[in-house]
Fold this sequence. Notes:
Blueprint: E1 5-10, E2 15-22, E3 26-34, H1 36-40, H2 47-69, E4 78-84, H3 88-105, E5 109-113, H4 114-120, E6 132-137, E7 142-147, E8 154-158, H5 164-174, H6 181-189, H7 212-227, H8 234-259, E9 264-268, H9 275-287, E10 291-293, H10 305-316
Parallel strand pairs: 1-4, 4-5, 6-9, 9-10
Antiparallel strand pairs: 1-2, 2-3, 6-7, 7-8
Zinc ion binds at residues 114, 118, 138, 269-270, 302.
Amino acid sequence: MKDKYILAFETSCDETSISIIKNGYKEIATVVLSQIDIHAKFGGVVPETASRAHIENITIVIEEVLEKAKMKIEEIDAIAVTYGPGLIGSLLIGLVAAKTLSYIYNKPLVPVHHIAGHIYANNLVKPLEFPLIALVVSGGHTELILMEDEYSFKYIGGTVDDAVGEAYDKVARVLGLSYPGGPVIDELATTGVDIYNLPLPMDDSTFDFSFSGLKSAVINLNHNEKQRGNEINSANLATSFQNRVVEILTKKTMRALKKYDVNNLVLAGGVAANRGLRERLTELCRENEIDLTIPDIKYCTDNAAMIGAAGYYAYKLGRRFDGVLKAKPTDKLN
Ligand code: KG4
Ligand code: ZN
């Protein structure tokens, strides 16, 4: 079969990213322009600022990725774009750029759900094998997804309140650490001791998660210790927090694998970069003879390579925009 090249766009949050992927697994070129420096001083992403930065950057990133790949748009087979979920203003910039190129160059336009992209980041490591369970952990999502076949997604559980990455970012803010908090807490957690008595959140028989209670426990502990004139040990608190997060995520994931009789696990989303989570899952999967795939660190946080990987399979399935181009800030994975 002739090679298929997908030009992929990802602008759902604060990364302007475009990539060219061959046959769903081979990265030809990717450019990721992060806005972290712009948002860091506010301790989180400012939506209006993010959209403006996407507008300023998008044409530069298109030119750069084509130059890097030494390709022309004429050589592309289809254009894939994240249509949601994400920040509406940010999504729209990627959508409008992708739609314009698709119209001018007469290329099929393929909509990709952001979480499908995160899961397919694993296809850049090795071909997905089914059935599989995906543990999706990011700044906006914490979900367990069952895939029985290519590009088919069944939701089996997820957070009822905060996403796990969101909890990391909020805890970091309380501790006076920089944004994004995940990598900072992850780093600190390697130096501390688990001495703080934090709860294991939503430790029940469901496949759902809850992180707002754990986040509040950290905030209250910090507040109470300060009132007593005691200094909180940030490293110990980071370790205690991370241990609880890793324990509940891995506990429910391993149970889901057993219940659905699945031997393949893929990890996805920004929090998949977490060292504690990667190590513990690797250990548990080895013990239980589960085949675990984890994306390279650079494909864990938002990037267009993962959208190109997912976009290839969506393209093969015949998914196309039906003429009505809509950004969907919240949308079920399908
Ligand atoms: O997937 P992503 O780039 O954006 C969303 O789709 O949300 O994930 C970003 C999230 C942030 O909350 C960030 O703090 C978290 O991923 N993150 C981490 C680590 N690296 C990034 N959380 C824990 N440990 C890490 N090493
Ligand atoms: Zn993401």
